[in-house]
From TrEMBL:
Localisation per UniProt entry: Cell membrane
Transmembrane annotation, as ranges: 12-30, 73-94, 101-125, 137-160, 181-206, 236-259
Keywords assigned: Cell membrane, Membrane, Plasmid, Transmembrane, Transmembrane helix, Transport
Pfam family for this entry, one: BPD_transp_1
UniProt entry tagged with the keyword Transmembrane helix: yes
Ranges where the ABC transmembrane type-1 domain occurs: 69-259
Native source species: Rhizobium indigoferae
Domain of life (superkingdom): Bacteria
Protein name per UniProt: Carbohydrate ABC transporter permease
Length: 272
């Protein structure tokens, strides 16, 4: 057996081991949603069992699942739209700036996204209380948009900076306004960056737990907060948690799988 073949076998074996390491906990959690409660922690563990939907029946009995999913969609969708409306033009303006501090400012926007969640929560909580938005999903949309638009600005700065200025100069020569050159030429040329930014913001907002936990009421909480209900004072109802996890993870996983090539490009794109 050649050294190249051995190397290929070793690489594939390593990939399989790593996939098993990261995916087995999630597969176990997903399988608990279809196990009878008595079989979840049976000793020895049962690898084969008769699937049941009793955990899902319990979830639909205890929770208004569609209201939770709707709140998650409203929060994630509103945050993404507002973040793009603010971040994309800001990234373009920063990329076309002639200031020598443009890159430093771009990294400053990136640093905003690194602010600890609790540090931003306390003053924002007081602000939302004073203006009467505390308890609504709008408060969560605003704080997510504040943080995510800074991230979008940093990412779109990278994309627009790699775009040749000659494209926009040609559009201006043909009679376009500055906004027309941005809208008709620059923005379509970086649509992969817009999609990547959308995916990042969507994941940040959909998976957010801390801000919805403290800024929303019971009737406006998303499904990420509802997962906490599976944790009781004496034990964890793993079957309920597994069933709720389906509604929390499947939508975002499907979206990312469908647009994964843009997501990977967004990860590998750097500041030029």
């Amino acid at each position: 057996m050649s050294a190249r073949t051995l190397s290929r076998i070793g690489e594939r074996s390593f990939i399989v081991v790593m996939l098993a390491f990261f995916l087995l906990p999630f597969l176990w959690l997903a399988s608990t949603a279809y196990k009878p409660s008595r079989d979840i922690f049976s000793i020895p563990p049962k690898l084969t069992f008769t699937p049941t939907f009793e955990q899902f029946a319990t979830v639909f009995h205890l929770f208004d699942v569609w209201s939770l999913v709707s709140s998650s969609l409203l929060i994630a969708g509103g945050s993404v739209i507002l973040s793009l409306l603010l971040g994309v033009p800001a990234g373009y303006a920063l990329a076309r700036s002639t200031s020598r501090y443009a890159i430093a400012v771009a990294y400053f926007f990136m640093a905003i996204r690194m602010v600890p969640a609790v540090a931003a929560l306390i003053p924002f909580y007081l602000m939302m209380r004073d203006i009467g938005l505390l308890g609504s999903w709008i408060a969560v949309v605003l704080i997510n948009a504040m943080l995510n638009s800074a991230f979008v600005t940093w990412m779109m700065f990278s994309y627009f900076r790699s775009l040749p200025k000659e494209l926009e100069e040609a559009a201006l020569t043909d009679g376009c306004t500055l906004f027309g050159a941005f809208w008709r030429v620059a923005l379509p040329a970086v649509r992969s960056g817009v999609v990547a930014s959308t995916l990042f913001c969507l994941m940040f907002s959909w998976n957010d737990f801390l801000y919805p936990m403290f800024l929303t009421r019971l009737d406006s909480k998303p499904i990420s907060v509802a997962l906490l209900s599976a944790y009781g004072t004496k034990d964890i109802t793993w079957g309920t948690l597994g069933a709720l996890a389906h509604f929390s993870t499947i939508p975002i996983v499907l979206i990312v799988l469908f647009l994964n090539r843009y997501f990977v490009q967004g990860l590998t794109k750097g500041i030029h």
